[in-house]
Glycosyltransferase family 49 protein
Amino acid sequence: MSCSATFCNPSNRCSTWLPNQPYGWADLSHSGIFRDLATVHVELGCELTNIFILASQLKERMNDKEEEISLVHYGKESVNKDIDVTLISQFSVNRLKSFIQVIEAWQGPISIAIYLTQPDDIDELIQFLKIPKNLEIYSALTITLVKPNYGHQEHLAYPINHLRNIAITESSTEFIFVTDADFVPSSNLYTFIRSRLVPYVIYQSGKLQPTAWVIPCFAIHEAYAQLPIPNTYNELRKLVGQGVAYITDPGAGHGPTLATEIAMVRPLLMGNPLAYEVCYESQWEPYYVLHRSAPLYDVRFRNQGGDKQSHALQLNAEKYRFMVLREVFMVHKDHQSTMSWPAGGFEKSQKAVKQWNYFEEFMNEIRMIYGRNPRWPHGCSAVAIGWQEQRRDILGLAAGAV
């Protein structure tokens, strides 16, 4: 993509100028803009180079192995931040290509943190951005490039919650939607949130207790990986019925969302047509839309395990309700044969002598702050669909799923 600037004087005499050229005052005078400049028009290609320049600048500092460096590229601004929602994500360079699916499915602002696990990751990033289409797509995003301290072995343990918090902090909208890079939102998710959820939340301001608006998560079996991501709920419903798609981690991880039992099978029930309520369960790790005033993620959790569970537990302890949105969803395709954490961080961290533990240290802290029963579904109403559908007594529910 080309990069040039058009300068015009008050007489509308215009000339085109290219970067990295040895222009002097005589050239400006000859074009009639040495003293009289009225307008400047810069081609899109010049704007797109910002993220590329940022990556190149970071490459020059990669020799500072003992220093953690974060550089930010600010993408397209939201027109109305008070009623908009930003998709938040994080990943390493091995997800750059696949994340394009997410970008194309989400029409709103996106803030991401890219973790450079190894020093040569910056070279892979620069090569990726040299492709004009990739540069154009990613330049619209707010991107934080994170170079860790390579001199410390801890950098191999992927700092997933730290990266989430960075991306949240660099976002500017009142609402955020934190997700992972391999989940593709339904094509109507952003417009649904903007046109239906946010107006409802604003209209009910002062009446609603703090609420996490949960997005149901589904997966497509690896054998059907060639199939396109479904666009509508009806398409997804057919795939679930055919055994092609299924709810992600139907046990403790996402089972409490009850997406298959309610949203996919049963007709809309009496009550709120926007969403249905479920009760919190221990070890649940949903994805949700929140107001940006919600607590950040606990940065002590690295790699996989407890990173989302801990956040949902804290929201429950703070008496948040959990409402599952209808008509929208997220999908990812199974890739167990290729799924791995950057630099083998997960496997290596499992061998660490000391790890921050969800079931011991974190739970003890939560009990000290919020009381003895933080896993009790504090914000759940007595008529929540979750209790009725699961037919579980509330003690078992609070104790957690198996």
